[in-house]
Amino acid sequence: MVDTQERPASAGPATSTAIAVNGGEAVAYALKQIEPEVVAAYPITPQTLIIEKFAEYCADGLVRTEYINVESEHAALSACVGASAAGARAITATAGPGLALMFEMLGVASGMRLPIVMHLCTRALSAPLNILGDHSDAMAMRETGWVMLSGSSPQEAYDLALVAQTIAEHPDVMLPTANLVDGFMVTHAVERVDVLPDDVVREYVGEYEPETSLLAEGSTATYGALDFRDYYFEHRRQQEAALYRSRPIVEQALKRFGEISGRDYNILEPYRMEDAEVVLVLLGSAEGQAHAAVDAARATGLKAGALRVRLFRPFPTKAVAEALSGARVVGVLDRAIGFGSVDNPLLSDIKSTLWTQSNRPLTKGFVYGLGGRVVTLGQFNQAFDELRSALESGEVPLEPTYLGLREDGEVSE
Amino acid sequence: MTLKLRDLTLLDDGFESGHGLCAGCSESVIVRQVLLALANEPVVALATGCLEVSSTRFPDTSWKVPLIHSAFENAATSASGIEAAYKALIRKGRMADRPMTFVVFGGDGATYDIGFQWLSGALERGHKFMYICLNNEGYMNTGIQRSGATMLGAWTTTTPAGDLVPGKPQWRKDMTGIVAAHGIPYVAQAAVHNWKDLMTKVRKAEAAEGPAFLNVFAPCDRGWRYEPEDTMAVSRLAVDAALWPLYEIVDGAYKLNGPRHKSKPITDYLSSQGRFRHLMRDREPGVIEDIQANVDREWNRLRVRCGLEPEVLEKTQV
Prior knowledge:
The complex is a heterodimer of chains A (about 425) and B (about 325).
Chain A: E1 17-22, H1 23-34, E2 38-41, H2 48-59, E3 66-69, H3 73-85, E4 90-94, H4 96-111, E5 117-122, H5 136-140, E6 147-150, H6 154-168, E7 177-182, E8 190-195, H7 198-205, E9 222-223, H8 232-261, E10 268-271, E11 278-282, H9 287-299, E12 304-309, E13 311-313, H10 317-323, E14 329-334, H11 345-355, E15 362-367, H12 377-393, E16 401-402
Parallel strand pairs in A: 2-3, 2-4, 4-5, 5-7, 6-7, 11-12, 11-14, 14-15, 15-16
Antiparallel strand pairs in A: 1-8, 6-13, 10-12
Helix pairs in contact in A: 1-2, 1-6, 3-4, 6-8, 9-12, 10-11
Chain B: H1 5-8, H2 27-37, E1 41-46, H3 50-55, E2 67-69, H4 75-91, E3 100-107, H5 108-113, H6 116-125, E4 130-135, H7 175-180, E5 186-191, H8 195-207, E6 212-217, H9 221-224, H10 231-240, E7 246-250, E8 253-258, H11 266-270, H12 277-281, H13 285-305
Parallel strand pairs in B: 1-2, 1-3, 3-4, 4-6, 5-6
Antiparallel strand pairs in B: 5-7, 7-8
């Protein structure tokens, strides 16, 4: 199916092959092309599409990967930690409660500076039990030291799966990286996905060549030592510095990916932002509804725009500030609740980013789509209506608006 | 290859002195015996515990072999990942095929309790690795709390000997038996004082085609309340009393390595340690008899599994 002919260097974008797959299978296809030494995973909805498809590749001998069918998600990431420290490229995938069970190991992976890649099929956290999509899980890992990328389509899930690999393993980064694939809205959506030839992917991701490893000849490396009050602080600071250092490397990785694929990505995805005064900021798969709402608002004369955050961690403060420099009212869409916080997670990031800017725009929080609640154009139209009122009155209520929430027995559209 | 003490003293054992383990601790002794017995290059995975915090304090390490400590409960899974990496890197031609042995050291807390699931998963999947349980019958690193390996009646800081409850109310888990039920090729019990038996078992474990498990009795002078110089004597008493028989299960077949007969009543063992002092002092006959009954029951069950006659057991005089 895929063209594997040799391609001269600097030949421009490679010829992609169009396939019709869901987001989960698109990620699995990327894994097949990357052919990591180790995949360790535990099945959980909606991630199962990835690992079942990849298990087929293993069973058919299409990859030389060791596929560890672990007994829990904690073990999935634990096995990746062992494998990565041993010098192997190690990948896992999970969702919601699985990520919650992994939590201890998220910090172990980043603290040990192991470039593990995780495909997080975003899902609601329990209780109540809910298998559907929202960003509660992703928000819970946002301060565990991982680079976090977020896409909005099966195509982007595939593309970022490749990009994530090169960011994580960059010698100046060496940090675990998560590819956020929205549960169901992306994992289970069948779309056209343009896949690159195997050799082009192989050239792009290269091989993982760590400076040191447990299996290197003559190795006496100790991974995961005990730090006391004399070193822990310095090591945490170094880890933080590496995470911030990754920002330009993410930009380079996306640029390099654009050169081979013809798909130009950056750390932010602006839509009609050139002269936008009223902007909706969001993360993930509700981009289509956001764009349609922007178009609808524009049709009524509002200078509307949308800004999707592709690089969520480290948060691209400078780029976001620049992108919002002309805005007068910014609405932020959170698909998670930050219980007890001043603001929900994405709004909090945006407000902090804007605080140091002169001519700060007004900000307004929205919560939407929890537990797979259907996200409609009407909800985002409502958001723009509220932002328009704020623009006119110069005032915004501090409380967020809950879009599509049934408060009085009716679902608002 | 025969094991001669004279030869062994000349070898570099891979574990440096200067670590922070207590005087009298079993663990460094066991680690040295294990590392000395290995034929292949080792990679070591540690669970959180005394050994780990005492031997890997940055910027120092006592280990002259590659080592990883990941978390408390998942050392068996560290080994799973390393073994998988080893196989795949060789398969892809990215590293030379050279014989290596993946060794896990975990305490009884890491093995019997918090890491039980991780160990079981790794055994069931059949990774080729060797798991050494340093069994000192409690959470010593956090301050002598009870574990699933702690004996009935033992004082610990979470099972104090009070007026109502005389120490730990429960017997102990048969972890060696539980591991054996996974059907792995090599399972054994050993003890710190019998170096030759332990090292022989390490070699068999290394040669096994699949997972191997050694449950090694590791008396703890701080936690068990005896003098540091008595570690080997306490370990020997446990074996003589058949409280900790030495045996192995090779491809399902049981073999007893010692003692040949139970030669000491349990009271000799109990009176050697301060953690049982309340039982002896307060004459807790019910508890001591229960301990003896448990020991005798397990001992005869093991003898039968090893194809031996059960021993005629005299009622313990308390």
